[in-house]
Amino acid sequence: MMKSASTLIDTVPTPKQKQVKSTVFSRLRKNNIAFAAFLFIIALHLLVFIGPLIWRVSPEALTTHGALTGWSLQTPMGTDEIGRDVLARILHGGRVTLLVGLTSMLFSVFLGVVVGACAGFFNKVVESILMRITEAMMAIPNFFFVLVALTVLGTSPVMVVIVIAVSSWMEIARVVYGETLKWKQYEFVEAANAAGASPLRILIRYVIPQIYPSIIVAGTLCIAWAILTESAISYLGLGIQPPTPTWGNMLQNAQQYIWTAPILGILPGVAITLIVLAYNFLGDGLRDALDPKVVRKK
After folding, report:
1. What is the CATH number that goes with domain 86-295?
2. pTM, to two decimals
């Protein structure tokens, strides 16, 4: 009895991924810097998301200890220029900054994957239109685009996320475009085509899953860019607005106290530097761990 088209499609052979999944983590562990960055990222996220549940001090409330006080049991990191608890603001500000980075990355990856995959898989007309749009966006300096867009459209948290995402999807689109051009030539795509699968089904089910490693690496680097951009625009007063704390606007508030209370700028500055470096190191480590030439050698 002949199998139905859907059954044939479900049994189309694709490159084996089980060995890739089982070896990626072990390869990442062998890269000491990347694995240390991975552990640091997990620890910092746990700290900023779980910490406020333990240290239940409002980041906006004024304490009774006064302004610019030193470290103590009641205020472990002191107070800021108007008497707010610095530890609470670091924790809550980190939560906002990391959420903006993560959310912006998800939007960027979605836009980049859709544009890159469609440009690489469908006909020349679609490819020309989408890649010319991508190249036009890449010609605009990202940071100045963000500044102008936020000046015109406003500085709400949602708008900050959208603008950062719209300014950073192009690199992902180009990576996905190149990978899609490569994978659509493989035999399993031809087999799915012969079995009667629609082009969209082939793209989503058989081609895009092969690009996951490149998407993951690009996503980690995109988070670092988003965090750095959010911090920079908040420092310039165009990001998340006070009284909501972020590491960027904490730096802005601390600049006039750099000589009298340098810790107010050092803490958020060090946090931004470390998390951006950690994501960059993790991205480099994942690039090596997910390298198909290495992983699929067996």
Report:
1. 1.10.3720.10
2. 0.84
Q: How far is CA 32 from the centre of its chain?
A: 22
What is the SS3 string spanning 43-101?
Answer: HHHHHHHHHHHHCCCCCCCECCCCCCCCCCCCCCCCECCCCEEHHHHHHHHHHHHHHHH
Tell me: the pLDDT tens digits for 248-294? 989 888 888 888 888 888 999 999 999 999 999 998 888 888 765 55
Report d(CA 173, CA 186) in Å as an integer: 21
CA nearest 89: which of 220, 230, 263?
A: 263
With 0-12 / 13-18 / 19 or more C-beta atoms within 10 angstroms meaning exposed / middle / buried, residue 46 is exposed
| Euclidean distance between CA atoms 113 and 100, whole angstroms | 20
Do 238 and 150 contact (CB within 8 A), yes or no? yes
- Degrees (nearest 5) of the Cα angle 108, 143, 156? 70
